Fold this sequence. Notes:
The protein has 271 residues and is mostly beta strands. Helices cover 8% and strands 35% of the residues.
Amino acid sequence: MEYRNRKSMAIDLQKISGLPILFDEQKLDLVFDGDFPFMKKSERSLEELKPYLKNPGVDKGPNPVYYVWRHVYLKKDSEKIKAANLRYDITLIPPRIIDNEFAKTAGHFHLNKLGTDLPYPEVYEVLFGRAYFLIQSPDKNVKNIKAVRLIEAGPGEKVLVSPQFPGHTTINAFNEPLIMANWISDQTVYDYDSYKNNHGASYYLLDNNSSVDIVENSNYNSIPEIEKIKAREYPELGLTKNRPLYSLVDNLEKLRFLNYPEEFAGEWRNW
């Protein structure tokens, strides 16, 4: 559980994240309260997000929509993370609505690792608030979706974006900020254009008088029924609710699946 730092009244995320980080909820900002390099906050503007929305012609809304910190690490961990070709990021999505669509990340597909038929995977952890992760599995034609899952996750819970579901976006449909972290291979190649051309994922999450409507995206040719599931643990990968994702920096071999998905080809259908 998070608690409030008495001195700053910010929310202390160290226990859940494994890093000395404070969340200033009033300023919607993170305070990196340890031996970090300079942490640059990037903003995702409404203009950038418009092509991914149900209504790409929306002319007003919150701006920026969300914030990202890339390559987060303690200085003492820098070399081993770099040598492992890994990247740890943090994303903050405030509780915002654009037109009637809940705030979300742009979304993208992961492309296949060179020399394999498997995309690079990714793993997420919720540090504060709650999230919906919408993951989807495309056919050869990305306008045809074979399977879609909507995964709800809360603090400490992990979500695996496996090669079976290489398309994903994250939505904050709740009334508090969402902070999430992720580990990913630094070699990952992304396809944002397919999401942009289709104006988002295969389903939208829309606000309907404080309830959530799940609506199909008509820009796709074929969409299956969405499967709603809860986040789960993957103890064989070191991904459990009570273990901070960043703590795997002390055992990066556990994250080998991020760089070498082909070595786990027999397991992906179970994950």
